[in-house]
Amino acid sequence: MQPAMMMFSSKYWARRGFSLDSALPEERPAGGGLSLNRSSSGKNEEKKGNKGNGKGESVSEGGKTAVVFSLKNEVGGLVKALRLFQEKHVSMVHIESRKSKRRNSEVEIFVDCDCSKKEFNELIQLLKFQTNIVSLNPPENIWTDEEGKAAFVSLDLDTDKCFAQVSPQSYAPVHSTHILSSTDLDCVPWFPRKISELDKCSQRVLMYGSELDADHPGFKDNVYRQRRKYFVDVAMSYKYGQPIPRVEYTAEEIKTWGVVFRELSKLYPTHACREYLKNFPLLTKYCGYREDNVPQLEDVSVFLKERSGFTVRPVAGYLSPRDFLAGLAYRVFHCTQYIRHGSDPLYTPEPDTCHELLGHVPLLADPKFAQFSQEIGLASLGASDEDVQKLATCYFFTIEFGLCKQEGQLRAYGAGLLSSIGELKHALSDKANVKTFDPKTTCLQECLITTFQEAYFVSESFEEAKEKMRDFAKSINRPFSVYFNPYTQSIEILKDTRSIENVVQDLRSDLNTVCDALSKMNRYLGI
């Protein structure tokens, strides 16, 4: 079913900060049950019982609720279903129907009713028996709703879907209203719930920038190693909310940056995607991107914030895929400040600030690319190690080494390509093995660090890649969805009807603004 709220397609949900797997209902096979936790309603039910008879037994109290079920479009079908309401003395306050958007042979019936919990449960059992319902969501959470707002369930013949009430006139399927307890979440890997908790992620460095391998160009250079230690200290001391310390780069560092900047700039007009070429001159104007100047991260962060909502923060070295992707969920990019060794300016065995500033930053300034990056991050929160690795591999072959088609030509948008002269030339040559981007197969490709990739993956656009990643993210086994609140810069766990309802309230406000704008366009512009 295509819900009413999905008329904005996935683009609208994306702008509101939804993760890749939160917009559409999850398909389940027939016979699949719901895992329910009743502890959340136990205290409230106990209070009701004590208040009513002093024995701790639950007393049936009246309340408003609603139900949605589907019927075959045949004579007498609705009458038979509504007769069950009469038999169980369930008062119908409001009823409406519409043609099913899932099956042409069915209609969907919405019934707003007033009854006790006992009566409602008995009604559901009859509906299940007579319509062969495979599963439903009990209304325990409805009856403890402080605001008395109804949430309703879908009784479908073949599928196990639930509906969350927006209004009697517009309802849309979401994941089931099963309430997750703290026990349910204990098995979920930790992830930052607010942006300041990224301080913890940035401290969990797998390998410090000063710890160089024996084959590193700067391994035997003690001066270079001490310089790298300085950058480690700066990054490890940084906390969220602080201005990023400005670095006074040495003449040798500026010279190394200048070589990389100059050589890559020659290739960008014929090798980089149009979004990159659009933003690069702006970085020259506002952030000091020049051959004789290494840009400061603080200036870059301010620029990105105004363009796409992204910011950068210094990092001491390699982070785990989980910690790095968690930053993207908040539109935060962990960025190195050190520069590669000057003995070989065109080679680096690790990401340095040349890679970050020339490869990543220009595209992080593009709103669509920024959204694509954030959604990969959101999908990783609370995911298993296996799923995080799959997401990290997809990230590697898109944001790091991705290709796209523009004006019939291959163009690079991956930062690993846009910061490497040799591989940028190779990836767009006839020698490269180019495949169509498909997350299901791309996530199995081996990532190579010290040599050219054995395969590169091409998308028609960022939007296409994003849609494919959304579909792929549905396979991630996670007992909840997440929503990024841009006002509080925090992650909200969507695990029950109450949490979803709060998000819907925000959407209503946005819809009112859009409707008002359309009305004024019609009134003043005749559009």
Secondary structure elements and pairings:
Blueprint: H1 9-15, H2 39-53, E1 62-72, H3 77-87, E2 91-99, E3 106-116, H4 117-131, H5 140-143, E4 152-155, E5 162-167, E6 170-174, H6 182-186, H7 198-203, E7 205-208, H8 222-237, H9 251-271, H10 274-287, H11 297-307, E8 311-314, E9 317-319, H12 321-329, E10 332-335, H13 353-364, H14 367-380, H15 385-400, E11 403-406, E12 409-412, H16 415-418, H17 421-427, E13 434-436, H18 439-442, E14 456-459, H19 462-473, E15 481-485, E16 490-494, H20 497-525
Parallel strand pairs: 1-4, 8-10, 11-14, 13-14
Antiparallel strand pairs: 1-3, 2-3, 5-6, 7-9, 11-12, 15-16
Short description:
The protein is of the alpha/beta class and 527 residues long. 44% of the residues lie in helices and 16% in strands.
